[in-house]
Amino acid sequence: MARSKITTSATAASPARLWSEFVLFFGAAPLTLALLLPPDRMFPMLFAVTALGMILLHMTPSFRWADLLDGRDRIRWGAVVGIGALVLAFGVAWLALARPDDLFQIARRQPLLLAMILLLYPLVSALPQEIVYRALFFRRYAPILPRRPKAMLLANAALFSMAHLMYWSWIVLVMTFLGGLAFAWAYQVRRSFPIAVLLHAVAGNAIFLVGLGAYFYSGNVVRPF
């Protein structure tokens, strides 16, 4: 994943068009989900937005879907195991204090559901999110992103966190911001989409395994207004 390919991929689109897409996709869409839509319509809207993001990525000049395999030889398994261990440790500590009944709740009460989540989450959630928030973000919108690498990573993590505003939980916003930093680092610094997907998949599975998935359940959403 050569740097020149990443930073020049969207030159065919005008800055005005890129800004319009960027604001609508990464700003208006998450706010609409959080502020206007009822919880039972959140996920159909999310799937629609994800599909649109994949179409935009496909339309991006010089992008090829095979590019997403770049960096598979640079997977850092220590980082993958480490993020899983960190999420599990944090989840045990936090839930033991704040919501002890939720600690390993699905594992204890619905092990088959947990097995299904662990199998499907990497494909139906982590992978699409990484396509939109890493590949689309950094490839298509590179011309309008901050030039400083740290600012670029922070912007990506902040917008990834805002995509989870619909859960109306500060703990979700913090977790997704930190996760967004890790996934953006994997994609933009390590130049490896496969690492980003693996980190996201392992972190997400650890969240559901330990019981933090209760914060990501649309049925628990309570808007503060």
Automatic annotation (TrEMBL):
Q: InterPro entries attached here?
A: Rce1/LyrA-like_dom
What are the residue boundaries of the CAAX prenyl protease 2/Lysostaphin resistance protein A-like domain, all occurrences included? 113-202
Q: Which stretch is the leader sequence?
A: none
Annotated keywords = Hydrolase, Membrane, Protease, Transmembrane, Transmembrane helix
One GO term in the molecular function aspect is: endopeptidase activity
What biological process terms from GO does the record include?
CAAX-box protein maturation; proteolysis
Membrane-spanning regions, if any? 18-37, 43-63, 75-97, 112-133, 154-187, 193-217
Q: Is Membrane one of the keywords?
A: yes
Q: What is this protein called?
A: CAAX prenyl protease-like protein
Q: Which organism is it from?
A: Aliiruegeria haliotis
Q: What is the lineage of its organism?
A: Bacteria, Pseudomonadati, Pseudomonadota, Alphaproteobacteria, Rhodobacterales
